[in-house]
DNA sequence: CGGTGTGAAAACCTTCACAGCG
DNA sequence: CGCTGTGAAGGTTTTCACACCG
């Protein structure tokens, strides 16, 4: 997942649980699809299936928004699309800037899912002079020297960072200084921002690592014991030597030393 | 954020909470950075800051893995890197196939974060014949007709779907039929898979929508008055309310019971 | 001392199950 | 009757705070 969040000051009444907020886009997507097929109403059961959650959860989620359904019938698709859009703030137009136009930035620039949800790519920004002026997904790339100007002129409050990790923090700082208060970070690094600025992160490799964890477990399960090169070693007892000091000689798994992970 | 099916068999021993598993990659990343700077040990406080979580949470997380720290000192960086890598299953090599080589697929193919974490891009697959043979990030694209063969020959168990939503389910079905048991889905659609197959999804526009929700709230807040983000509301009228009538009837929505205009 | 490891409390989220309304 | 809306129960995650150890 990808969460990111800056502490909520414990706020007031009108609180929609964060977990619910995170699912609203899912419901919206499912509803939009139904709307396109001109389906007039849906039951919580059907909509839940389409969104990939269970119906009790969906009903509970909707109950935080208000009573928008009709007992014995279900929910009016169009009406719900509107209510959720409004709740998410998608009834207004959100100009967004994407910084870092490499492969990923280009993919984001051309991603249809943005435009269709109230987001408008206001500008593509890159530090490489060779990119300046080059159109990507139909939008000319601008140089990062103009970052502040662009943000101010367009009243941009949401920025997407798709730069290498090394420069992400400084790009972030500039965005924040220029007035951006929400950041979607694709760089594999932790950004620090002042209070009042929201950061959400998406790390592609983290998702894969979580899958690997479960995958590994499946493999170990069906064999009871193990068979791979990296055997199960210990499992039950927490044993394992905590104090494995001395940089060069930490004794680890069966494979002598040095884990198999080493970035470039 | 999205877990796949496969719920805890309950009976299985060694349960590391899902929330903890999701953070292990974060710790690993922070530790890898420290390791590169040859830092020998870290305290929970320091590591937590580097990973963007609080220290109590980090210590609790590590307690599920075992007692790998030294009281009064902290954790041995190298040792912890190894332990977490092993727990995540990253000490082995995971061949991965990426299906759908558009902008996003190309970005993924070239993403350094994969290779550095035990993942190996075994193949890039696309349905467009014009792409076949073309090298992307140094790897030649193969045609989807050969999908099953590729998966079998390489013993691939993890697949990444970066195709348009319309074909995602069928690609998924083929991957699963060929033996893939973990899928990372970038297509904005819900995939249905048999039990035993894990799916995680990453939807770029969902993250932005969540940011918009908070952004909207901020805007409404500084305007002083309460009354939610949609204060004025009124807004024309149409839309199709389910059945908002009857005095004292259902009125819970933040905006009384008067519907509002449907956005385009 | 300084910092880990961990029970216990608190907060949060999900699921159950059913009252009640259309 | 069918389905929503929701208290209450159950589960998970986070936070607290402190015993305990190097």
From TrEMBL, chains A, B:
TM spans (from-to): none
Bias (Low complexity): 232-249
Chain residues forming the annotated DNA-binding region: 26-65
Location(s) in or outside the cell: Cytoplasm
Record-linked Pfam families: CoA_binding, Put_DNA-bind_N
Functional note: Modulates transcription in response to changes in cellular NADH/NAD(+) redox state.
Similarity field: Belongs to the transcriptional regulatory Rex family.
Cited HAMAP family: Rex
Protein name (database record): Redox-sensing transcriptional repressor Rex
Source organism per UniProt: Streptomyces venezuelae
